[in-house]
Design goal:
Length: 138
Amino acid sequence: MLVQEIMTVPASYTSPQDSAASAAEQMQSRGFGVLPVVEDERIVGILTDRDLVLALAGQERGLEGLSIAAVMSPGAVCCRAEDTVEAAAALMGDHQVRRLPVLDDEGHLAGLLSVTDIAVNASEQLAGEALGEIGEYR
């Protein structure tokens, strides 16, 4: 089975210039814990709910004054739409991430693949194995 058969589309995303507050609102309203950060049609980073929480820690102001660029994790582990689900699950385990941005042939964001997508649409066993590696202390 290929990633493109089970990935979530369209993928929501944000840009480095957007406000962290608007991204947090988007994540909350859609029930997402992660947003790819896209600039000039290329993924330049990833924004997680953890990034937002850490940005707030120890400060008195809110997210309104912060840009995505100030709080995102630069770079992102990605897979390709034509990769197998097994290869994507292995990548998740190797890099200890629960979600992967999915790229098309031109390197543009095509979707998002989560461990849940794998469990529901491909294999609970494969998803469980990936989760075991993701949660492993290294």
